[in-house]
Design a protein that fits this description.
It contains 15 helices and no strands. By secondary structure, the chain is mostly helical. The protein has two domains: 108 residues, no CATH class; 276 residues, no CATH class. Helix 7 crosses helix 13. It is a multi-pass membrane protein.
Length: 404
């Protein structure tokens, strides 16, 4: 007899088929070349690769589609009967390039009912302008320092140059990606959508685990909701919990790109986070909070080397430079030039990556009342003018996460 249990099994079958279908499309476009390359290396065959253009935003909208499929199956939301509403969720333009990855159950109600008020529109404009300033005025200039450092022939540099370069990248990737997220959230707010923050000052974290609760929050929530928890999360044996952590971080690495450096980067964090859970968490919590922040920053900076440099040889050479093993000394002319020309940029970026600026913003509004709003309006106007001037003068500099 056909009963509810049969319907549930049928629904599960369709859910799995749809997920496999969508993941297969993503895997083909994103990992086809990587797979063929490695088969050629292992077998000695000279297999030819057809260069396929990566569909714009495929990683982001694939995850959003999977979110919809699973949320409907679990009964978190109703199936969407209107194709236009579903298409709006999947391809809404502020999110499609680089997120944030809003889960369908969180966005469902606003697909039908939302209000665009002057206050919400104004808040959206503020958010967009701050994101624009982050990207154009800070991230783009930091990227020039990192490109200059990693372009040094043979990576022959001093330890200080290596550290300044990777710190520049550490700040660059934050301002680039959080800048885009702010712009997307701001645009969404102007259209009546309310999306949660995607970054929460990750560089003040006291552990790697906390860092990933503050960095790219929407992606972390997606992996937790649709991979980690279905695998059993931490409510399983230590061995299975270890498996779950490494599965999530292997997928995280692969999601960012089809290259071994991303896999190593993902496994690196899998190891660190597992060690924090079983060994490091208690002794770390007893340390001074500033020591905890420095520990986390050290881990993150080390990880960003693996994230951006493509070859294993480059990665180890850069590490050797950082720790004076293979460097040309402690300080060289490149390091002195970077300090002399960019110390103000580093200072602004470091302060901007902490709650300092938000505290200053709130303090101005509180202390100066209406005059504070006038001051902030002038400040935003200056950011817009400087950003436009910079965009006109500079060459095209795409958002880093567009390629993921």
């Amino acid at each position: 007899m056909y009963n509810i249990k049969n319907k549930r099994e049928e629904a599960k079958f369709y859910m799995v088929c749809l997920i496999v279908f969508n993941v297969s499309i993503l895997a083909f476009y994103k990992y086809y070349g990587f797979l063929i390359d490695n088969i050629s290396i292992l077998t000695g065959l000279n297999l030819k690769i057809i260069n396929l253009p990566l569909p714009f935003g495929i990683s982001f909208y694939t995850f959003k589609i999977i979110s919809y499929i699973v949320d409907v199956y679990l009964g978190k939301c109703k199936p969407q009967s209107r194709l236009t509403s579903f298409a709006l969720y999947v391809s809404i333009f502020p999110q499609i390039g680089a997120g944030p990855i809003v889960q369908y159950s969180d966005m469902e109600s606003e697909l039908f009912e939302r209000k665009v008020t002057p206050e919400k529109f104004g808040k959206g404009v503020e958010k967009f302008i701050m994101g624009l300033g982050k990207k154009v005025l800070i991230a783009n200039n930091l990227s020039l320092i990192w490109v200059q450092v990693k372009s040094i022939p043979g990576l022959e540099m001093s330890a200080l140059t290596a550290w300044l370069g990777i710190i520049a990248f550490t700040l660059y990737i934050y301002f680039d990606f959080s800048g885009y997220s702010d712009m997307a959230i701001g645009l969404g707010r102007m259209l009546g959508f309310t999306w949660a923050e995607n970054f929460n000052y990750p560089y003040i974290s006291k552990s790697a685990s906390e860092f990933w609760r503050r960095w790219h929050i929407s992606l972390g929530n997606w992996f937790k909701t649709y991979i980690y928890i279905p695998l059993g999360g931490n409510r399983v044996s230590k061995l299975l919990n270890l498996r779950n952590i490494f599965v999530v971080w292997m997928v995280t690495g692969l999601w960012h790109g089809a290259n071994w450096n991303f896999i190593f980067w993902g496994l690196f964090y899998g190891i660190i986070i597992y060690l924090e859970k079983i060994k490091i968490a208690k002794p770390l919590s007893r340390m001074n909070s500033k020591i905890q922040v420095l520990y986390c920053l050290f881990i993150v900076v080390i990880g960003w080397v693996m994230f951006d440099l493509q070859s294993v040889g480059q990665i180890f050479k850069f590490y050797a430079n950082m720790f004076i093993i293979g460097s040309t000394g402690l300080v060289d002319s490149n390091a002195l030039y970077i300090i002399r020309t960019s110390w103000k940029l580093f200072l602004i970026a470091i302060l901007g990556s902490t709650p300092f600026v938000l505290g200053l913003y709130e303090n101005i509004k509180r202390r100066f009342g209406k005059n504070g709003y006038i001051f902030l309006a002038v400040f935003y106007a200056i950011i817009v003018l400087l950003s436009i001037s910079s965009l006109v003068a500079d060459s095209y500099s795409p958002f880093l996460y567009f390629k993921f």
